[in-house]
Amino acid sequence: MLLRIDNVPRDYAWGRRGAISAFLGGGPTHAIEAELWLGAHSGSPSRLVDAGDGPLDLAAAIAADPSLVGGRGALPFLLKVLAPGAPLSLQAHPNAEQAREGFERENALGIPLDAPHRNYRDPFPKPELIVAASDRFEALAGFRPAAQARTLVDELVAAARAEREAAPLVALLGDDARAGEAFLWLLSGSLEARALVSKLIAAAAAAPDRFPLQARLAELHPEDPGVIGSLLLHHVELQQGECLYLPAGNIHAYLDGIGIELMSSSDNVLRGGLTIKHVDVDELARVVRPEAGRPPILEPTRRPHGGLEYRPGDPEAEFVLVAVDDRADVALTGPAIALCTEGAFEIRGAVSSAPLERGDAVFASPDERTLALSGSGRLWLATTK
User: Fold this and answer.
1) pLDDT at residue 10 above 90?
2) What is residue 292's three-state secondary structure?
3) Averaged pLDDT, 118-133
4) Residue 33: its pLDDT value, please?
5) What pLDDT score was predicted for residue 28?
6) What pLDDT is attached to residue 364?
7) Fewer CB atoms < 10 Å away: N or C end of the chain?
8) Which of 339, 319, 349, 332 is nearest to 381 (CA)?
9) What share of the chain is helix, strand, coil (3-state, %, to 5)?
10) Which listed residue (121, 271, 311, 358) is catalytic?
11) What single-letter DSSP state applies at residue 88?
């Protein structure tokens, strides 16, 4: 079964005016548009375009007919269009064990699911990937090697004349395995950390040519330790079609651009800074992976039956994303969602077919078995491994 779906972009403060509508070929709008959710997550389930007298959204349709997701109980992924015009929070997500324990712990404490200070809103992990859909997509992702971070920190410390205050931080930046410890020290709120952060933010703001990212972040978050924490993270600029994969524990923040994001259907976020939302550094410390490494780039592979495939090797990531510019045949192991962002396509399964123009999206149930996609432009297909 193919079901046409759509949704209204969410208006988080870090979005851009009319960005998602323009990307999907819609009419002009001045509304702040941050994220478009395509899926069945309770936070913003996709609407059924031709609902008739039946369920009005995809979550209700799946609840009424579990065969739509092949007996899985729920749609295991969530497809999004993201349009950050300002930084998202510095954040990491839990693995399956951490999510289950945190969810049960906060339930036992009686914290309402919709409470602003709640960290775990469901018992599921939240690995995610994002593909640049604009010419460039800017992000912070993962800890830099300690030597690289030390060079940047030393330069800013010298500009701030803060060598004495920086001694605890510098001591932690001698080992790649302690990168996360150094980062969390900056966010700790201790008197030592706050004194250093204050001096370094002032120095970065006064030297935008030398520290452009930190000066930009300082303008938005003038007292936030995440401004300095960004020195310890990879500053990545993806070109169109390039991808980041963020497994559990990876610290990251999206900064600017348009991206196609695919994740497990979860809303568990542990924030450390660069936000007006709830920050919980102690809980972030429970989940963050402390070691430094390479930028978490996920290389796509060319599929023998057409399209590029973004497939995480992580067993907690039950999803795969296929990008199609002309033709592809995709055998389904579960449900799927297709979104056309350029040109026009036709989607044909074992049961039904549908045309898709720019901005159109459809949900496909597993009984379609194999989806034949044909057209010209760009179509994204999210499905299960």
Assistant:
1) yes
2) coil
3) 97
4) 97
5) 83
6) 98
7) C
8) 339
9) 30, 30, 40
10) 271
11) P
Query: Rounded to an integer, what distance in angstroms lies between the CA atom of residue 257 and that of residue 227?
Result: 20
Contact yes or no for 363/336 (Cβ under 8 A) = yes
Residues 6+ apart with CB under 8 A from 216: 208
Amino acid symbol at 6: D
Tell me the two tokens of residue 119. Answer: 């960290």
71 pLDDT exceeds 90?
Answer: no
Can you say how many angstroms the Cα of residue 368 is from the centroid of all Cα atoms in its chain?
29
* 363 and 98 Cβ atoms separated by less than 8 Å: no
Phi-psi region of 326 (alpha: psi -120 to 50; beta: other; left: phi over 0): alpha
Any catalytic annotation for residue 271? yes
The sign of the torsion formed by the CA atoms of 50, 51, 57, 60 equals: negative
Give, in degrees to the nearest 5, the angle at Cα 148 between 143 and 153: 95
For 213-270, the pLDDT digits (tens) are: 999 999 999 999 999 999 999 999 999 999 999 999 999 999 999 999 999 999 999 9
Kindly compute the dihedral angle of the four CA atoms of residues 301, 302, 307, 312, in this order, to the nearest 10 degrees.
-20
Give the C-alpha separation, 331 to 369, whole Å. 6
SS3 188: coil
Contact at 8 Å (CB) between 83 and 23? yes
Rounded to the nearest integer, the mean pLDDT of the chain is 96
pLDDT at residue 54 greater than cutoff 90 = no
